[in-house]
């Protein structure tokens, strides 16, 4: 092959390669943009479905914290004629039932939020157990109720209230 035919071949090959590279780059850019648009659309659809579930989880956890707060719990569970031992069992069971009923909500909240809810539950159980240890088992339930309320009053900032504030702050950041 002589130089002229090589140059002629290059005159056809180089522009063809430039067109091929340009077409490749344009097609790649188009496909990347299309991928990003589809990804954003999928995320938007997912957010539309997940956001209400997350919001509901925060609502349910706030309700859980309110329901297991010792003052609300004692008022709701207490009844005349119970011994302190019976009330103690009923209070502990009520806290555990409320918590177990809401276990699935941890999927929708941050790990820190869930840990605060869990710690609040443990603190409430600890307060109930501490109060029960200071009252005779056969004493009227009213004595245990008073002891729980006194322990709660002495505890300046209960974990349940801190957890509730944290959940509210997290919800504000979401919306």
Short key terms for the protein model shown above:
single chain; mainly alpha; rod-shaped
Describe this structure in words.
The protein has 175 residues and is an all-alpha fold. The protein is 83% helix and 0% strand. The chain contains six helices and no strands. The protein is rod-shaped. It starts with a helix and ends with a helix.
Arithmetic mean pLDDT: 90
Q: Helix count, per DSSP?
A: 6
| Number of E-state strands | 0
**Largest sheet entry:** none
Structural class: mainly alpha
Order of helices and strands: HHHHHH
Low-confidence stretches: none
Proportion of residues in helical segments? over 70%
Q: Name the quaternary structure.
A: single chain
Computed over alpha carbons, the radius of gyration is 32 Å
Distance between the termini: 73 Å
Shape: rod-shaped
Relative strand content: under 5%
């Amino acid at each position: 092959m002589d130089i002229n035919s090589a140059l002629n071949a290059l005159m056809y090959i180089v522009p063809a390669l430039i067109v091929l590279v340009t077409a490749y780059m344009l097609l790649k850019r188009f496909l990347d943009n299309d991928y990003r648009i589809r990804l954003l659309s999928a995320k938007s659809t997912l957010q539309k479905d997940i956001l209400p579930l997350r919001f509901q989880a925060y609502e349910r956890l706030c309700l859980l914290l309110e329901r297991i707060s010792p003052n609300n719990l004692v008022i709701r569970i207490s009844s005349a004629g119970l011994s302190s031992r019976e009330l103690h069992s009923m209070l502990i069971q009520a806290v555990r039932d409320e918590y177990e009923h809401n276990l699935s909500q941890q999927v929708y909240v941050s790990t820190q939020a869930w840990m605060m809810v869990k710690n609040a539950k443990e603190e409430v159980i600890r307060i109930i157990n501490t109060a029960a240890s200071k009252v005779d088992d056969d004493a009227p339930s009213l004595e245990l109720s008073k002891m729980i309320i006194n322990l709660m009053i002495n505890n300046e900032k209960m974990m349940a209230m801190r957890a509730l504030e944290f959940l509210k702050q997290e919800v504000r950041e979401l919306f």
